[in-house]
Each structure stands twice: as C-alpha cells, then as structure tokens.
Write a structure and sequence with these properties.
With 296 residues, this protein is an alpha+beta fold. It is built from eight helices and 16 strands. A six-stranded mixed beta sheet has the order 13-14-10-12-11-16. Bound molecules: manganese (II) ion (2 copies).
Length: 296
DNA sequence: GATGTAG
DNA sequence: CTACATCAACGCGCT
DNA sequence: AGCGCG
C-alpha cells in the first residue's frame, strides 16, 4: 500500500484509507477524515481543553467496537496528553493533526466532558434525554419541549441537539462557570419537576425496569466524571448520523436524528454556523443563583 | 488498527 | 513466527 | 452496605 500523508499541524500518516467504515451509505475512512477536516473548526471548539473518550471501530461499525480514554503506546510525539497518577496518559485533542491521528485508528465517536481541564466547573447545564423505546422519537421530542418550557419559565434559555442515536440533549449555556455541586442540584431538580408534571412521558427512575416506555431524564449524566457525545461527532450508527445542534423550530417541524448525517451536516453548518454557541444568549450567574435559592 | 505478550 | 488480548471508568444516589 | 446504571 502506498503511504498517504495528510498535512495538518503535523504530517499524519494514514493507513487503509479505503477501509469501509459504514456500508450503506458507504463511508470510507478517507471520507471520515475529509469530514473531520471540514468540521474541525466546529468540532474542535467542543473538544479542546477537555478530557476525551473515543469510540473506535477499526473494522467498521459492524465490527468490534471499544471505548478508549488513554493515548495508545507508540503515538507520535505531536499527540498531546494529560498525564495522570499511575503514568496513564489521558486523551486530549487540540488540533486537526490529533483528530486525524485518532480517526486513522478507526475512531468514529468523540465524547467530551462538560467542564474544561483548566477549570473543574461546568459552564453549562445539560439534560440527557434517553428514550426507553429507541424507536419512539415522538416521546423524546415532547420531553425536550417540556424541559425547554420549564427552563424558560426560570429565565433559562436552552439549545437542543440530537445525540445522533435515539435521544436528544438540552443545554443551558452559562456566562460564568458554577460548581458541579450546584449545577447537579439544578439539573436534578428540573428533571424531577418534569417527571412530576408529565409522569406518563418522563421518568427519572434509575432502574431500567421501572422506566416502562418513558423517556429517561438522565440527570446523573450531568457530572464531573461523565461525558457526552460532542456536537458534530459522527456516531457509529448504520446511517452515519451526526450529533447535531438544531433550532427548536426544526424539532417542532418534525425533524429526526437520521436527518443529520456525515453527508449533509458540513453544508448545514457552513450555511447556518454552530447553533450550539450562536443560537442562545448564555444565562447569568444571577439567574442561576435565584434558581438555587428558591429551591432550598 | 496497533501494540504487547504468550505460545 | 503466529495468535490472541487489550483498548473506560467510577461515581454515587437509592433500595 | 451493595448495586445498577450510563
Ligand atoms: Mn443519551
Ligand atoms: Mn444517558
């Protein structure tokens, strides 16, 4: 095989560029690399300064898949890491070259923590909505609007994105960071409120067998050790879906997670920008403080 | 996909 | 040399 | 005190 080198911040050696990662629609490793190059300005803004977990499918999405949190041995010297106790090197992605290096290893998904390495406090509230019945998107959609409307009454504007799988995630950007102790309190409180008000649709039951066919408002997913699929990450799904921030009006109009894929998201973002950062004015600490106080 | 290690 | 295993974690709220 | 969950 002739060696293929992609020039980024460093030259990245690419192996098996024609490896078919997705069958239908067909997506080769090279096509995935091209997607990442195009989307890097947006994707990287959600990966930088955070701890990253990868999902790798070296033999395509039908093959064996596994999570990876640590830099593999033998990585080139341009690959950064965060050295942690025990000598383990946690994955950090700051530039295109690193993105491409991991993509060459068969990485499909990039998951990121909510807070940054440089600050242990999140600058966002997050609500992970997981349908029990993965085919029941209508119920997830409803729950997302319940969460939005509840937040709205508290003067907290929110933005929604598809996870790229079967769920949705709702975010409240904050002007200033707040401690997880506080953000978790608020997220838990709102999750329980939504469950209480729409008990036939939403649940916060941690035990799967108690959830029935309701949507799990996964408040525990908002925490210092948890990650969420990054905006604009491809998912290892048959359709090569992408976790995509959308307008509430699009959700109202009946859009579906499968509408956003590796094929069409780059054009969408080129046209409309990153809705994750542009569609909502961050809430102030004062609004949050009010929220916290009223709850105690 | 690449590495480390056991056979 | 080939074959095979490994590739993440905890935290943490609840029963 | 142990467990189930993502
Ligand atoms: Mn989810
Ligand atoms: Mn979840």
């Amino acid at each position: 095989m002739q060696p293929l080198i992609l020039e980024a911040e460093a030259p990245v050696r690419i192996t098996h560029p024609d490896k078919l990662l997705f069958v239908d629609p067909p997506v080769t490793k090279l096509a995935n690399l091209e997607y990442l190059v195009q989307m890097a300005p947006y994707l990287l803004s959600h990966l930088r300064d955070r701890r990253i977990t990868l999902v790798r499918c070296p033999h395509g999405i039908a093959g064996h898949r596994f999570y990876q949190r640590h830099v593999p041995s033998g990585a080139p010297s341009y690959i950064p890491y965060r050295e942690v106790e025990g000598g383990k090197r946690e994955i950090v992605i700051e530039d295109v070259a690193t993105l491409l290096f991991y993509a060459n290893l068969g990485t499909i998904e990039f998951h990121a923590e909510l807070h940054r390495l440089s600050d242990p406090r999140p600058r966002v509230l997050s609500f992970d909505l997981d349908p029990s019945d993965t085919s029941d998107f209508e119920k997830v959609r409803k729950t997302a609007f319940y969460v939005r409307d509840t937040l709205s009454e508290l003067d907290l504007p929110s933005v929604v994105k598809t996870s790229g799988a079967s769920g949705l995630q709702v975010f409240v950007p904050l002007l200033e960071p707040i401690a997880y102790e506080d953000s978790r309190r608020i997220v838990r409180f709102i999750a329980r409120y939504v469950e209480g008000r729409w008990p036939h649709i939403a649940t916060t039951a941690r035990l799967i067998k108690e959830r029935g066919d309701k949507v799990y408002v996964d408040a525990p997913q908002h925490g210092p050790t948890r990650t969420l699929i990054a905006p604009y990450s491809v998912r290892a799904t048959p359709l090569a879906t992408v976790s995509t921030p959308i307008h509430w009006s699009e959700l109202e109009g009946g859009c579906r997670p499968q509408d956003f894929t590796i094929r069409n998201v780059p054009a969408r973002v080129a046209q409309f920008g990153d809705l994750m950062t542009e569609s909502v004015a961050p809430a102030s600490a004062a609004t949050i403080a009010k929220m916290l106080n009223s709850q105690r």
